[in-house]
Each structure stands twice: as structure tokens, then as C-alpha cells.
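S1.2 Input.
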Amino acid sequence: MRGIALACLALTACTTVPPAPEVPVSQVGVAFDRTGEVGSFADGFADPATSRAVTADDPVRVASISKLVVSIGVMKLVEQGKLDLDSDVSTWLGWSLRNPAYPGRPITLRLLLSHTSSVRDFHDQYAIPLGTSVQSVMAEPSSWDRKHGPGAGYFTYSNLNFPIVASIVERVTGERFDLWMRREVLQPMKLDACYNWPTCRDAKVARAVVLTQAGKPVKDDLGGKQPDCPVYVEDGPCDLGRWHLGENGALYAPQGGLRISMRDLARVGRMLLGGGTIDGVRLLTPKSVELMLAPAWVFDGRNGDTDHGFYCAYGLATQQIPSAMRGCHDDPAADGIVRSGHAGDAYGLRSGLWIDRLNGTGVAYFVSGLSDDPPRGASAFRAAEEAAMKRSLGLLGTGNACSNRRSRTKDLNRLRCKYAEIPSRSVDLTPK
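S1.3 Output.
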């Protein structure tokens, strides 16, 4: 869980100093604009056990940023007329998806993607093992919010929405989720990435970033080869012959299992900055990008769980920061600049993909090797990820000079030239 921002509890005015961030095992950042990469840094180890240095081309499990890329796939299917955002998803699933407390209210893709569907996480039931179905998990009362029904506009972040979405993708495409996503979403953007590991090249698997906590590997300690079992199994053999189309969209971890390098993740940001186009290849229409990035939910003081001010505006698997609403602490860069994207948090990793659409720039970054509850920063983000974001933004330098920026409205706050003093140059600090 994200922690609350530091606050002064005294009745008189005072100044608080955020604690120092934990020292990551690895950290990588890439800054970019619409035309390409501006700069990068890479420090630490992709695999501490072998002292293999991390680079901006090494794939890492980026956690919930995976959801944003799933949404790109969904919007592509919407454009093709195979899905729409506001129909009852039961039609595609082949079974009735209903909150038992609100049986008359249909659930739509728009609600699932914006976390307003009333689907709820209970422990880790969104990790559904091979041989178990999404339908059986959704039959559990703990998978639902009985106080706030679908269509009520109430936000609670829930990983479980996305196994449902992935099951729908399989049903309408007739193909395994990870295979379809690689061919129709990742490859057109020229991304050497994959959901879980089966569709990544062996050369990419060999460069996997090992995620660690307390000095021990907790994810992707692969030893340079594909994992023995690429999906979650509790009982029975790891036999993908047991997989059935559309039964269990959780198997390839749509909620958090995308393995992608920061250099490739930056290309996702460039595609969004380009209105659906990157390097002359159109993946989505500008209208679809607008639908993804526009807030579908905005906090009004009582219409959702903000996770201590971390979530205050959310689109279709995209987050919008910062918000001026009281109780929101969602400005990790501390510069008031409006950005869209997503954050990730799992297995000691914190990650982010954020774009500034007004100025046509963005950053992609991660830090690894953190504890479950690292020191909080000045915002609802943790100190280590704030530091990585600011360092990544610093790479933009005078290439995004204040004199070249358009004026912002008072609602968006006046732009500050926070990073302009840093020289603009393409730099790679990858350990040699």
C-alpha cells in the first residue's frame, strides 16, 4: 500500500523534511520527447548474484504499468468493432458477471478499466492458478464491493479487474492473451517485450532484471533461461494443455506481468504523445488515445479510495497527476506539471511511465531492491521513486526550456523551470 505524505502535526507552522530514500539495488531512467530518446541513466545490478550491471535495455517486471498496455490492446479491439466500452461484458465472457448485491447493474469495459466496476481485491485472489477460472473467483462474495455498485462512480483500485479484461480479449480474438498482445500491440511498436516470459526471445530472457528484497531474489531469478513454469500453478502439472480459451485471463498477468525495458517503455510513451502513432506506424487513433488518457473518474472528496492521496484522477488504465483536491498528494515531481501515465509497485520495485502532453516530453523509470514499505516521500509516492522520477526529468534539461513552453492556465498551475539548469544532452550512465 502507498503511504500518506508526510505532514506536520503541530498546530503552528513548521517545515518537514522527507526521509532519505532507500538505496536501490538498481535504478534506470529514460527521458524522451515525441521524436525520440533524450537521455538515460542506469545504475546498479540487474543480477546482484553475478554482479551483472543493469542497462536501459534490460527487461523488468514493471508491475501495474502493464495495465496501461493492456488498455492499448482493448482500444485497438474497440476500433475494430470487436469490443465496445459500454456493453455488458457478460456477452463476451459467456457467463453473467454481476455484483451479487446489485444484480440489475451490468458491468462494462469502461468500468473495469477505470476501477469503478465494484470488483475488489481480497488478498491476492487476482493471481488465479492454472486449472481455476475467473468465473469461479468472481463467484466469491469477497470479490465484490457490496456498498458501492457498478455505475455508482466509486473508485477502488483492484488488480482483479484485469484478469476479467484479459479473458474478454481471449474470447473475442480466439487467441491466448500473451500471444495476441505480442503480435498486435507490442510488435507493431517494435517492443522486445512480453507478458510473463513465454513470448520473449531467449536473448531477452538472459537479460532479465532479478527483483530482490532484503538481499534475496523474489522474482525473475531465471539464471539466463526461460522459467520451468511460466504460469502460476497450485495443483497438478504445469501443462499448458490445461489452458482453455477465455477461462483464466490471469495466467499471463495482465495486471502486472509485462516484462519490458525502460528504453522500450519510453516508446509506449512516445506513441501516446504521438496521438497513437510512433515512427510512422499508427497503432491507435487520436480519439482512442484521448479516451484512454482523459479522466473517467475524479476524486470529489468522498467517491473513492484514493490510497492516502495517491489516486485522485484515473482514466482507462491511466492515471492523471497532480490534483488540486484536498487530501490528494499525487505530485511526485513537486512541480505542478500535469502528467498522464501509470505507476507500478511489486516485489521491491517501483516504476513509472509519465508523459507531459503539453510539452511533448516524458520519462520511464524503475528502482528495485526496496522493502515492502520504503520511506515515504513528500507526496504519496515513496522517496526512492520520487528521486528516480526527478532524476529522469532532469535529463530533459534545456531541451524543454521555459522560454519555449506555452503558458498554462491557472488551473494547471504556472510552469516552473525546475529542470532547465541541467544541460540537455543524450547521456547513458550505464556501468561499463
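S1.4 Remarks. The mean pLDDT is 90.
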